[in-house]
Amino acid sequence: MTSWFGSRAGPRAWSSRRSRPATSDFRRLVTEASLDRDWLSARWRVAERMIDRRALLAALTLSVGAGGEVLAAPNLETVEVVTGRGRVRFQVEIAATLAQQKQGLMFRKSLAPDRGMLFTYKRPQPAAYWMKNTLIPLDIIYIAPNGTILSLVRNARPHDETPLPSGGMVLGVLEIAGGRAAQLGILPGDRVLHRIFPKA
Q: What is the CA radius of gyration of the chain?
């Protein structure tokens, strides 16, 4: 068998093939390939726009409240509870305005074990919460002005409109997933650490 490098005719034959004029079939194939490439590029641009549009719609869906109002993405703050078993932390949304407090955790379908919502007041006051339009059970923790837990309601029932009173003056109310207080050993008298409460 003669190798390509050992054949005198090899390079000339290869060169002659390269120098042949393009046939109409070859030109047609090149044109079709170019059109295919343009078509794929156009499809890719459309797909990118569709992905961007879906992402935008998803973001808008998440940012619209039950009443149709647009809500800003929540800023999370850390709340720490000092229990007899140790310290536990929650990343919480802050409900400081009347509108935020009226909305609360209504219509939420889930709440992560380390998440919650802290309702804050400008001055101490009695409070009573209910579970209207609330889809998941919650532990409601009433916090006295000095930062200690005054009282708590365990596993408040979804949709129950019975008022659940604090039993005294509070400066904040922490809502967490139902059953978490028992799991973590959170009890009245435990201390809650957050910027709205005085430091020990």
A: 33
DSSP for 143-200, written as a single string:
E-TTSBEEEEEEEEPTT----EEEEEEEEEEEEEETTHHHHHT--TT-EEE-TTSPP-
- Which element (helix H / strand E) includes 79? strand 76-83
Q: Tell me how long the chain is.
A: 200
Contacts 24+ apart (CB under 8 A), 83-86: 83/184, 83/185, 83/186, 83/187, 83/190, 84/185, 84/187, 84/190, 85/184, 85/185
The structure's pTM equals 0.65
| Per-residue model confidence as pLDDT tens digits over 173-188 | 999 999 999 999 999 9
